[in-house]
Amino acid sequence: MLLEIKDAHVHYGKIAALKGITIEVREGEIVTLIGANGAGKSTTLKMISGLRPLSGGSVLFEGKDISKMPGHKRVLAGIGQAPEGRGIFPGMSVEDNLHMGAYARRGDASKELKEVYELFPRLAERKSQAGGTMSGGEQQMLAIGRALMAKPKVVLLDEPSMGLAPMLVQQIFSIIKEINRRGTTVLLVEQNAQQALQIAQRAYVLETGHIVKSAPAADLLDDPAVRAAYLGGD
Ligand code: ATP
Question: Which residues form the ABC transporter domain (predicted)?
Answer without folding.
Answer: 3-233
